Amino acid sequence: xxxxxxxxxxxxxxxxxxxxxxxxxxxxxxxxxxxxxxxxxxxxxxxxxxxxxxxxxxxxxxxxxxxxxxxxxxxxxxxxxxxxxxxxxxxxxxxxxxxxxxxxxxxxxxxxxxxxxxxxxxxxxxxxxxxxxxxxxxxxxxxxxxxxxxxxxxxxxxxxxxxxxxxxxxxxxxxxxxxxxxxxxxxxxxxxxxxxxxxxxxxxxxxxxxxxxxxxxxxxxxxxxxxxxxxxxxxxxxxxxxxxxxxxxxxxxxxxxxxxxxxxxxxxxxxxxxxxxxxxxxxxxxxxxxxxxxxxxxxxxxxxxxxxxxxxxxxxxxxxxxxxxxxxxxxxxxxxxxxxxxxxxxxxxxxxxxxxxxxxxxxxxxxxxxxxxxxxxxxxxxxxxxxxxxxx
Length: 392
Ligand SMILES: *Cc1c(COP(=O)(O)O)cnc(C)c1O
Prior knowledge:
Bound molecules: pyridoxal-5'-phosphate
Largest sheet: 9 strands, parallel
Helix content: 25-40%
Number of domains: 2
Oligomer: single chain
Low-confidence stretches: 1-26
Strand content: 25-35%
Radius of gyration: 24 Å
């Protein structure tokens, strides 16, 4: 029996098939059973972490921002925190609180700039901010002095992302002023790669620039932590002086760089069920806008997932498939809010109640993202709260 932990209620659901059955969901849920759910394989998450560790060789800041890329912040943070990780990377103070409230005591790193109102709490709870300006540094320094502590911070340097960090020019001068802030300990330096998955030449230059900056500032010994790479940087590039890496997407089983996908395991499988099967006559429109009209009698399965669950409407008309009873079946017409229609003419065995893989091991999420003219990061983070996350 596979144990499944459902995140909405503190109940372990078990089912022989390894997925929430109608029955168990009904018994345990005060609300109606979910039409769509995401099965999240924590073993696969751990395996992907091991791949990251092996490929990098140094320590890891595991990125769990945006609800762990839609996989569920608390459960993912709890799982990763039992592995040897240096930091959990979050986007904001709200996420940091949720990680702590889940009982996770790993170090927390805030990946972006902070607002002045947030800093008191950051200092009090000794989360680790990255610093993009002297003003920010001075404020943190005052707050840390008020508490009589030395706050560990990382210096953020902009080597091409254009989103945050000190601009690289005259950095050494600016740092002299930082050195006077005695209640800050600049224990790390980081930068970010905007195009590690698209532009090798630029990325190599960024690595060289980052190394040169560290040399300029006094060498590797000055910073305990030196980090530049996201998943694509980690997988695709030699890391030189870096001893910390910040993988996100690859932990969730998707490689932004072609060629590494086979080493990763699928973590999230989005599933639903067939709610209805009917045969429509030739000349019958399907879905809003009637962009698809049958040309022959067509057996159509209606499935309980739609853009209200985060399945992208932009796959409409792009011949996206779902997986039922071991084969691909094409979606017909537009994705609606709660339902999609699929051509099952070729599969007489398909019946109401059949389980459907929307994406997962058989229908790669990257394929859905491509058809939707989106990116996997957006598809994952767009899976809505209505979709029950089941962990096993
Ligand atoms: C989101 C993020 C990452 C992780 O990026 P992936 O491409 O998902 O691996 C790393 N570093 C920073 C600063 C980020 O914002």
